[in-house]
């Protein structure tokens, strides 16, 4: 319903100006962001050199079963017979029985390769990301076991709940075309 | 059993992290005599990024549909159906993330962090509802936003919230927006996502604190329409202001208002404004003086807010994990607390010097000084502006929705007798053809 009144016309002029300014503002913000823009997504990942395997990953993820799981880089592994990622460093009794194993879910599989070497594999579906093996491997071994966000499970929350709880500030956003921060050494 | 090991473990961990960082190994990788081949590490790939663009497409289509339903069809049932679809799709199917509300922070981080650029889909999510609001009012809130939808779906017995209380509570939303932007700009945290009350329901999992908070909001929401949208939503604050300027917007009556008063209590969100009586001359003079006083008060409030924000910088800075860590390390080094935390252990394991950490924390505190000043000034400006708008009386001849508060839910249409007349005409027209 148009109102022909000088006062209203002035108000309408101001309103239209402000409207245009807002539209231009949104366009400006969008243009700036698109100019800086990035086609790929950002994903959360753990820097394994910062991670202290505190255990928050297992409990703070919004998923019932955490998206963080242990990853094993075989090239760094010493294939130790007495592996403290596999065995509890404080055993009840000195033998290789299951009660001395470190992993609370039995997610680490041990396979004999040759004397005195054993291969260790993570049974991914069983791993809950508690980091106990990571702590043991870091303390007494080569650190070939470490935690990573597994992107088939990760919900990619805009604010990762584990990142907010991470005491080592080891979580950071990584571009989706390089979604993992795997440890590496020269000879691998 | 004696357990002296933890200390040893910690010491060894310190050593190893240092060693590992240098690329050295305690046990050299074995030379196998058998033909054993080392397996390669496989890590599952992230899902292909097609879904975000599907989401952006669905967002565009649902916004167009919402506009048509709210402004042309004017049918509450269809709007409600679309709202339920969006709740199911954006909420339960797509897990409610990313949403335009959280995208505010991504845009902010893009502006302040040189290493971060916003993904295109998130940018679309941020900008599209804003543009639609500039043209058509808050159709996004009414029918598309899953957070609004989950509250709207549980609203069974709306009670009226007094206007002064509503205006007061809404200040929380402004404060939340300011804090969300500040903490995102500082790279501290995305608090709007961290404390999103409904995402836990969409995913059927989450931290219990947030689930309880969301549950409380839904309980309140059964009687107070959409409490998150009205009193907390930071994106809603932006949409409010843009909606004041919108080209087209919800009108209760399709033609002329006949002042029947039937729609007076129709709005569960208190957005319907009554026609105003002309002011008595005496009252007008008082009001004019009050307005002048408030105009003078505005810069005072802005200044006071800025000063208050600056004074609060120490507490604001504590949201940043680096500052919290520096504080903890300081306390530990000066033997003001006993023991260590996970964070201080991790700090020592990395081998950074505490001076470096203190310097970083001081720099952050300074930046929070500026940020806190701006946040405080913003809050002061909002309070002053609110007082001004409350003291100004707009002339209104008809019952109309307040463009800022109207959430475009379409509930009021059915209350208008003129609307029934329009619908009847439409039906007759259909029959005639």
From TrEMBL, chain A:
User: What SUPFAM superfamilies does its record include?
Assistant: 4Fe-4S ferredoxins (SSF54862)
Q: Which Gene3D superfamilies match?
A: 3.30.70.20
Q: Which InterPro entries match?
A: 4Fe4S_Fe-S-bd, TAT_signal
Q: Which residues form the 4Fe-4S ferredoxin-type domain?
A: 42-61, 118-137, 145-176
Could you tell me what this protein is called?
4Fe-4S ferredoxin-type domain-containing protein
Instruction: Name the source organism.
Output: Anaerobaca lacustris
TrEMBL record, chain B:
Membrane-spanning ranges: 50-71, 78-104, 116-137, 171-192, 204-224, 291-310, 368-388
InterPro entries, sorted: 4Fe4S_Fe-S-bd (IPR017896), 4Fe4S_Fe_S_CS (IPR017900), Electron_Trans/Redox (IPR051684)
Q: Which PROSITE patterns match?
A: 4FE4S_FER_1, 4FE4S_FER_2
Which GO-annotated molecular functions does the record name? Answer: 4 iron, 4 sulfur cluster binding; metal ion binding
Give a GO cellular-component term.
plasma membrane
Top-rank taxon, per record = Bacteria
The UniProt record lists the 4Fe-4S ferredoxin-type domain at 248-277, 397-426
Mind listing the UniProt keywords for this protein, alphabetically? 4Fe-4S, Electron transport, Iron, Iron-sulfur, Membrane, Metal-binding, Transmembrane, Transmembrane helix, Transport
> What is the name listed in the Swiss-Prot or TrEMBL entry for this protein?
4Fe-4S binding protein
Name the source organism. Anaerobaca lacustris
The organism's lineage is:
Bacteria, Pseudomonadati, Planctomycetota, Phycisphaerae, Sedimentisphaerales
